[in-house]
């Protein structure tokens, strides 16, 4: 018996107009739902779970906004072809980080960098600074314990601003410099 879990899955997307973006969003939710069913799983479309954060701009903005049918809590609902609705929210909180249309991932990036830096300091005092250990072993531990904190949801990096990407790279480069100076 094999169990599979899909968690923390983000799908960045864009389209040439607001209505097309909503269509692509619905199609993506449908494909993800079908894929989960194929593997004996079910996507949780309840509040706080599977939700979309969208930025609508350009020609057709007003009619696309009206299509979302926002309720009094400012949550939009797109009717899915297979039944049920996909919630469209103005912001989404994941692992304590608030993501919204106005802030493309910067708080999450800073949280990742803080976690990686804390891991680097903890390992630096013990494992990474042990010059008698092989470089390959120290690098492997750094990749497992530090780089993974930076690469979390790396598939969404194309949606991050260049400054955030540079900050992630700089954090990993500082780890590599520390390892290289001890080698």
Task: Describe the fold and architecture.
- The protein is mainly alpha-helical.
- Helices cover 46% and strands 11% of the residues.
- It is built from five helices and five strands.
- The strands form two sheets. Strands 1-3-2 form a three-stranded mixed beta sheet, covered by helices on one side.
- A hairpin with a 5-residue loop joins β2 and β3 (85-89).
- It is elongated and about 65 Å long.
- 15% of the residues are buried.
- Mean pLDDT is 79; it is low at 1-6.
Strand content: 5-15%
Mean pLDDT: 79
Helix content: 40-55%
Biggest sheet, spatial arrangement of strands: 1-3-2
| Poorly predicted sequence stretches spanning 5 or more consecutive residues | 1-6
* Cα end-to-end separation: 45 Å
List the total number of helices: 5
- Shape by Cα distribution: elongated
Return the string of H and E elements.
HEHEEEEHHH
Over all CA atoms, what is the radius of gyration? 21 Å
Please give the largest β-sheet. Answer: 3 strands, mixed
Q: What oligomeric state do these chains adopt?
A: single chain
**Helix-and-strand structural type:** mainly alpha
